[in-house]
């Protein structure tokens, strides 16, 4: 089916691929300057960010011509000029006035003439609409000017925030209103997507980021989330560019797996058995409280309480506040029902080892992957350098601003590489991404500096150009033990994992730049990490970054069959599940190393935001998955 949009000829602006619409970025960020585009006819589309209506002075009534029959009924125009409804109506007014003079008689009948004059249809007073629209291609919006005397349109159609508009017009110098350097005078409206104002979330005043999380399908229309999305896209491209330019091959690893790379992580189990059970057992008399997770309701109560407090502090209308209070009341009642249900429920425990998975889809237990590094190893041991990019899953119920259930990760594996090589690769990759953002996201970074964090650009520049300290786990513990001006919540001793608080002190306070910590105790790292000669530590590392924490983890993996087999037993893992992994040591083993970069945390660092839920398009957290 061919596009219904008109083809605009002789335009120096290239339209978007597969559409005749010109992206606003090509207009507002033109390399030749916006003034060079004056007089260009273009088609643009976007969503209304703000609007204003200015009433024009009413047109003076036209002079009545002689009551000649030829003038009373104007001839149809045979020219090429289009006429609109207003013009047609105005052209008929002399005819109506002629009839009034005939019916009303002389000036001695003013009452009759006044009555007849009131019957003449009066055209609505013309208005000029000033719309700021944005299509997501850049931070800035384009001013669109619509004269209702030329382009018939009503305020209710185009003024509400969120309205979608596609229009053809001519670029010109800006009017007195606004600070724009260029604007579009509309000649023709091609499409209007109206908005239900009372239901549109962004119709209200600026919403805080935590409230926007309830509308993940709408929040990309906000300037902040749109900028985050563009920065995320740039980092995505940069990640592929880094590895592709260094000879790595991109390998897609499975999302579902039978093995657990970490050996001690919480996993999501994938099964079809529950669906079959629910089909066989149809519950009767189920209440609203049945099947609802208590933690989900608690989280909902916290969010709705927060919303009520925000509405009380703001100047929102009373109807919205009353609705929010009523919603909170119903949620509290549901929580009481769940509490009553839980108290009356007998305590039972379902053990996975008592369930037969032979009838399951795969005929065995299978999980959403925690890491793709084990699968990457098999390709690294054949192709040399490989990497993968995709979602990883952890069934961790802990509430954290830095971790959610589904997070995207960049992983790499290198054959013939040792721990030192992996640490060098991690540092080079991190610096490359920092530099790429500064060089390729200038407009979005200006917005970030103005609205979110004034220090982001300086921090990225410093991390892209400075050298990083490398210390062992033992050295890190010694540094932390000597701290006297700060009391850590977790008691520090050798052999325990370093907490976020410990890592934050090292990167933010002690070194004040990224630091790489290596040679961790074997008990706190996965089974596949190579055991060091001391028998107590393993060849693993973490790159800790100020403001964020651990962004990259990596290791040299165990290439010795006997040592890996012993570690599998030490972690009490099922050897049958890892036979394929042991095969890589049986047949042509090689030293190899790799790393995992937390992509969402990298986006968090680049945008200056503080909660990872605000940089992931559709967040999956404990008790909540809206879309």
From TrEMBL:
What is the enzyme's main class? ligase
Q: Which family does it belong to?
A: Belongs to the class-II aminoacyl-tRNA synthetase family.
Q: Where is this region: Disordered?
A: 53-75
Which example biological process does GO assign this protein? Answer: asparaginyl-tRNA aminoacylation
This chain belongs to which protein, by name? asparagine--tRNA ligase
Cellular-component GO terms for this entry: mitochondrion
Domain (Aminoacyl-tRNA synthetase class II (D/K/N)) spans 360-621
* E.C. numbers: 6.1.1.22
The question of whether Ligase is a record keyword is answered with yes
UniProt feature, compositional bias: Pro residues: 59-68
InterPro entries (UniProt xref): Aa-tRNA-synt_II (IPR004364), aa-tRNA-synth_II/BPL/LPL (IPR045864), Asn-tRNA-ligase (IPR004522)
What keywords were assigned to this record? Answer: Aminoacyl-tRNA synthetase, ATP-binding, Ligase, Nucleotide-binding, Protein biosynthesis
Q: Which GO terms describe its molecular function?
A: asparagine-tRNA ligase activity; ATP binding
């Amino acid at each position: 089916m061919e596009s219904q949009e008109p083809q605009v000829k002789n335009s120096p602006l290239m339209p978007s691929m597969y559409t005749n619409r010109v992206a606003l970025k090509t207009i507002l960020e033109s390399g030749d300057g916006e003034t060079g585009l004056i007089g260009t006819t273009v088609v643009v589309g976007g969503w209304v960010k703000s609007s204003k209506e200015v009433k024009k002075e009413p047109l003076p009534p036209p002079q009545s011509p002689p009551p000649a029959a030829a003038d009373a009924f104007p001839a149809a125009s045979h020219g090429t000029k289009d006429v609109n409804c207003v013009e047609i109506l105005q052209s008929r007014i002399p005819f109506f006035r002629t009839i009034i003079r005939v019916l009303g008689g002389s000036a001695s009948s003013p009452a009759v003439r006044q009555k007849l004059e009131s019957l003449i249809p009066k055209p609505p007073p013309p208005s000029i609409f000033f719309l700021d629209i944005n299509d997501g291609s850049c931070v800035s919006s384009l001013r669109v000017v619509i004269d209702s005397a030329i382009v018939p349109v009503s305020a209710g159609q185009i003024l509400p925030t969120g309205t979608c508009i596609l229009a053809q017009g001519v670029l010109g110098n800006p009017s007195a209103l606004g600070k724009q350097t260029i604007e579009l005078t509309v000649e023709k409206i091609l499409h209007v997507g109206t908005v239900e104002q009372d239901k549109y979330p962004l119709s209200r005043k600026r919403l805080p980021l935590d409230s926007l999380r309830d509308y993940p399908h709408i929040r990309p229309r906000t300037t902040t989330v749109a900028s985050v999305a563009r920065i995320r896209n740039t980092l995505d491209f940069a990640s592929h560019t880094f590895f592709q330019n260094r000879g790595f091959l991109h390998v897609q690893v499975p999302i579902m797996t039978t093995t657990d790379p970490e050996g001690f992580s919480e996993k999501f189990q994938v099964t079809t058995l529950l669906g079959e059970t629910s089909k066989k057992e149809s519950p009767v008399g189920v209440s609203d409280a049945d099947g609802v997770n208590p933690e989900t309701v608690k989280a909902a109560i916290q969010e709705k309480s927060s919303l009520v407090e925000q509405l009380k502090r703001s100047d929102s209308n009373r109807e919205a506040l009353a609705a929010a209070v009523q919603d909170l009341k119903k949620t509290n009642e549901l929580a009481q029902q769940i509490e009553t249900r839980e108290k009356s429920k007998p305590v039972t425990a379902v053990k996975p080892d008592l369930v037969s998975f032979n009838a399951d889809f795969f005929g065995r237990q299978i999980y959403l992957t925690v890491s793709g590094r084990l699968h990457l190893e098999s390709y690294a041991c054949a192709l040399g350098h490989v990497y993968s990019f995709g979602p990883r899953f952890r069934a961790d119920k802990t509430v954290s601003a830095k971790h959610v259930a589904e997070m995207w990760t960049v992983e790499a594996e290198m054959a013939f590489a040792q721990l030192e090589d992996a640490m060098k690769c991690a540092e080079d990759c991190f610096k490359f991404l920092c530099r790429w953002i500064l060089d390729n996201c200038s407009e979005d970074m200006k917005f970030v500096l103005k609205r979110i964090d004034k220090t982001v650009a300086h921090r990225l520049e410093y991390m892209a150009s400075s050298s990083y300290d490398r210390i062992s786990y033992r050295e890190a513990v010694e540094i932390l033990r000597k701290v006297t001006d700060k009391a850590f919540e977790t008691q520090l001793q050798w052999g325990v994992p370093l907490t976020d608080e410990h890592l934050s002190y090292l990167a933010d306070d002690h070194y004040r730049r990224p630091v790489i910590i290596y040679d961790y105790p074997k008990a706190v790292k996965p089974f596949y990490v190579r055991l060091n000669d001391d028998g107590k530590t393993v060849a693993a590392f973490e790159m800790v970054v100020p403001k964020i924490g651990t962004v990259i983890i990596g290791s040299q993996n165990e290439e010795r069959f006997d040592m890996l087999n012993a570690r599998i037993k030490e972690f009490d893992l099922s050897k049958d599940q890892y036979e394929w992994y042991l095969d890589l040591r049986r047949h042509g083993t090689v030293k190899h190393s790799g790393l995992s970069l937390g992509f969402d945390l990298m986006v968090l660092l680049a945008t200056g935001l503080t909660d990872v839920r605000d940089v992931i398009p559709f967040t999956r957290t404990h008790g909540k998955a809206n879309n």
